[in-house]
Amino acid sequence: MLKTVIAGVLSLALLPAGGAASVAKAEVLDQADYAFLEFFSENEAIDYGRKPLYNQQLQQNGWEYKFERNGENGYALISEVTVCGQSYFEVEEVYLQGTSPFDACAGLPVYIAFNSYIDCVDGAYFDLATGAELSVEELQTIAERGFNYQGAGTEVKRTETISYATRSETQYNIVSDVPNYIGVEGANSCANVAGGILIGYYDKQCEDLIPNFKSYNTLGDYVVWKTTNAAAAEVIKELNILMGTNSEGTTFSGFQAGMNGYVQSHGYTYSSTSVMTNGLFDFSKYVQAVKSNKPVSIFFNYYSRLSNVLTETIGTDIITSYSSSSSHVAIGCGYKQHTYYDANGKVLTTRTYLKVASGFVTSGICYFNINNYSKIDNAVAITIS
To answer: What is the pLDDT of residues 289-308, one digit of tens each?
Structure first.
């Protein structure tokens, strides 16, 4: 049965599974519906239906949503995750066009990790992408990976060549950027480091957000952020606990819950605003956030780190990036955009790069290439006040 609702302005406050239901256009929505509708534009009519998804024990742990908008069919996959004993629904994948991989299921659809689609038939588990039967050990490895953001992985060098007549560049950075923290012993997730960067950034405005510590020095009117010292390391370790981080990383809901818990416990308010539109990263919203000096938490399903844009000869750029299939959380604090034109002044292509505090020891604050070999699952602009 299809529901027809009008998507509204939905808060990104943490919504535990089983919490109060919402109503839109006389349709009763549960918290999974609410999480699904957060990804769509205000006042947009959405027709959708849903079917249950299961974990490896064949207990229901989420929903497959199929929807129609603007004459196109798409789907979304939502899981129920547990953070420090509390359950939350979160959207893991949204595709505005296409058919769900679970359409090929002959048995029960099992969804336990990013980009992993499993069919359970008569007690046997099969990878829907390859048709191969999964062993108990393989299934457990996938389950442990789950919907966690893990951090840096093996990177592969990739190059792209663009020929053009002229090129223009626009760029912007949050004033003074953000702290450049890296991982510390006792915390094992990029999400913990990303959260620590946000806490350090807002410590400048919110006194004692990091108790008995000032996260910056000043040089005239210029702010110089302190590096990953003992005080910052303790914040990152505390977030490791509050976010429910495990050996495989941190979920989006865990990140939100941990940040909210830390900030509230220090007497301030944590809020986040989506930088997504209809399941896709919205660069215009990102620009608006950083120009308002609000850092953005970006959740990469996989990422591509820009190495350089080298103009070897006039009219030819060679773009070098290092790509990884690992999920990652980085803090966006700026951008640069190159627009390429032909001899007649017609736009050939545009390349967009996000300036981020990566949390990586070797690259620190750098640019991520979001044009190729990157996928953003979620992005939220952060305010602490």
So the answer is: 999 999 999 999 999 999 98
CA 114/CA 131 separation, integer angstroms: 18
Based on DSSP, count helices (H) and strands (E) in the chain, helices before strands: 6, 23
Q: What is the 3-state secondary structure (H, E, C) of the chain?
A: CCEEEECCCCCCCCCECCCCCEEECCEEECHHHHHHHCCCCCCCEEEEEEEEEECCCCCEEEEEEEEEECCEEEEEEEEEEEECCEEEEEEEEEECCCCCHHHHCCCEEEEEECCEEEEEECCEEEECCCCCECCHHHHHHHHHHCCCECCCCCEEEEEEEEECCEEEEEEEECCCCCCCCCCCCCCCCHHHHHHHHHHHHHCCCCCCCCCCCCCEEEECCEEEECCCCHHHHHHHHHHHHHCCCECCEECHHHHHHHHHHHHHHCCCCEEEEECEECCEECHHHHHHHHHCCCCEEEEEEEEEEEEEEEEEECCEEEEEEEEECCCEEEEEEEEEEEEEECCCCCEEEEEEEEEEECCCCCCCEEEEECCCCCEEEEEEEEEEC
Measured distance CA(209)–CA(239) in Å, rounded? 13
Residue 65 CB partners (closer than 8 Å, separation 6+): 36, 48, 49, 50, 75, 76, 77, 78
Per the model's pLDDT, the better-predicted residue between 254 and 69 turns out to be: 254
The pLDDT tens digits of the residues spanning 205-242 come to 998 999 889 999 998 888 899 999 999 999 999 999 99
pTM for the whole thing?
A: 0.88
| pLDDT (average), residues 174-189 | 88
Neighbouring C-alpha atoms within 13 Å toward the C-beta of 373: 20
Per-residue model confidence as pLDDT tens digits over 4-32: 444 443 333 343 443 332 233 335 688 99
